[in-house]
Design brief:
Layout: H1 7-16, H2 27-36, E1 45-52, E2 64-68, E3 79-82, H3 86-95, E4 99-101, H4 103-110, E5 118-121, H5 126-129, H6 133-136, H7 154-163, E6 165-169, E7 175-182, H8 187-203, E8 214-221, E9 227-228
Parallel strand pairs: 3-4, 3-5
Antiparallel strand pairs: 1-7, 1-8, 2-6, 8-9
Helix pairs in contact: 2-8, 3-7
Amino acid sequence: MKKVDHPASKRYKEVKKLVDKNKKYPLEEALELVKKTSTTKFDSSVEVHFKLNLNLKKNDQQVRGYVSLPHGTGKSVKVAVIASEPSQQKAAKDAGADLVGEVDLLEEIKKGHIDFDVLVATPDTMRILAPAAKILGPKGLMPNPKDGTVTTNITEVVSNLKKGKVNFKNDDSGNLHVMIGKTSFETVKLVDNFQVLLNTITKAKPSSIKGVYIKSITLASSMGPGVKISL
């Protein structure tokens, strides 16, 4: 029986032909190509994949942090806040937090009810959050001072997250994957977001790295082919 390609698979094969896998494209041309080769019917994410020269056996060669993209990501981020003081909880709600609480919210997390994308905590609540680390850690949701998600400045952090603040952390392969917008974005806005991200990643270079830090950068839409860019 002859195998019939799924329509999505057929579309992917067609658009992949538009990308020269041996070529590194100028940024704007690469972004236009990413938008053109999007295969989804929905508004795809535009993602940046950094291949970094990290020695993960060294504790000081981890790259993590956050960046506030000037035009946001186009994605609605659901923010949860754990705070002990009523004034901090009110500040979180006023800033746009979707879930706010303390012990009550922690109990829901322990039950596996995780209905948020980012968790922010005040420093004094980290002790009660410790038992939930085994649940939050593997999902990349454990608040961390380096990400700016452990803070006393709840209003600013929540507001920035809702506007387009993005946390990043290298994976087990030493690579970074960060969303910078949607295919519906004007190319100039994607360029702005990319440049801010690139500057932030560059500044986050561990001091112990010798030689090349960023080996390559590839752009892609959700389920679309990768497009390499010239550095």
